[in-house]
Amino acid sequence: MAKPFASSEDLGEKRQTLHVLAEGVYALTAEGDPNVGAVEGEDFVVCFEALATPVAAREWLAKLREHTDKPVRYLVLSHYHAVRVLGASAFGADVIVAHEKTRELIAERGEQDWASEYGRMPRLFKEPASIPGLTWPTATFSDRFTIELGGDRGELVLQYCGRGHTEGDLVMWLPKHRIMFAGDLVESQAALYTGDAFHRDWASGTLDRVAAFGAETLVGGRGAVATGKDGVEAAIAQTREFLDVMIREVGGSRTLKEAFERTHAALAPRYGRWPIFEHCLPFDVSRLWDELHGIERPVIWTAERDRDVWAALQS
Ligand SMILES: [Zn+2]
User: Fold this and answer.
1) Digitized pLDDT (tens) for each residue of the chain, 315 residues in all
2) N or C: lower Cβ tally within 10 Å for the chain?
3) From start to end of 23-169, where are the E strands?
4) For residues 112 and 300, what is the distance between their CA atoms, to the nearest angstrom?
């Protein structure tokens, strides 16, 4: 029987859990659905990631409001993907911060990405009509952006670590607590989506820079919160191994179909039961195939191209 397209038939609600990681530092995990976070300043809040729609974002904000009623001054977007950014209007943030490449990518391919992601995983788009349009960052940076949290809360650092999951990912770092929000640059017990990635940069220098922070708590893009130095190192190692296996198997294949079958066989024993593995793999292998054949920047995914690649590899 043909596998249903991407996550189009994955309609079961996930259980959300709010974690208080330190005083005024929150993460919401959701059994493999996109994670989000928030950090309190003295008289404001910084929110990390916006979810797929304003209605989904308002449900998260209602949980956050049980802990703090401070206004959202900053909304940080780790990268341009629709399920991370299209809920932004719910936050009423003064400033929407992202890497400069993220802003460029939204302009270049935000519309197509929205249609693609909605088709792949409709469950995340709670009341899609509530989305007012594309989300535009109002403050961008190229290397580092810091926010003083006030009082004795220390600073919050947004850092670009190189090309990885996309061309413009950032991580959010709290030096005082050694807590990192890594966006989709690190996954913990969840499969990687690499359809817009730069695999070789990500698996080498970019993850090296992420690891060099020496985080003791790490919230990845999906999956569980990684705790303790060992837990953080394991999450980064898992991410790197997924990429290394892909690079080895796709690099050793003569056709795209062979690349998919070899990569699937090599990754499935360890990662096959983790969230979105089957969903991601055709798009992941397709992008890496392009990358290894000299296509520098990811080809734009459209709802039509998604179905073609799926039919060629996964059906
Ligand atoms: Zn992403």
Assistant:
1) 567 787 777 777 888 999 999 999 999 999 889 999 999 999 999 999 999 999 999 999 999 999 999 999 999 999 999 999 999 999 999 999 999 999 999 999 999 999 999 999 999 999 999 999 999 999 999 999 999 999 999 999 999 999 999 999 999 999 999 999 999 999 998 899 999 999 999 999 999 999 999 999 999 999 999 999 999 999 999 999 999 999 999 999 999 999 999 999 999 999 999 888 999 999 999 999 999 999 999 999 999 999 999 999 987
2) N
3) 25-30, 33-40, 45-48, 72-76, 95-99, 139-141, 144-148, 155-160
4) 7
Helix (H, G, I), strand (E, B) or coil at 258: helix
* Ligand 1 centroid to residue 81 C-alpha, Å: 5
Distance 123 CA to ligand 1 centre (A): 16
Say how many Å lie between the CA of residue 79 and the centre of ligand 1.
7
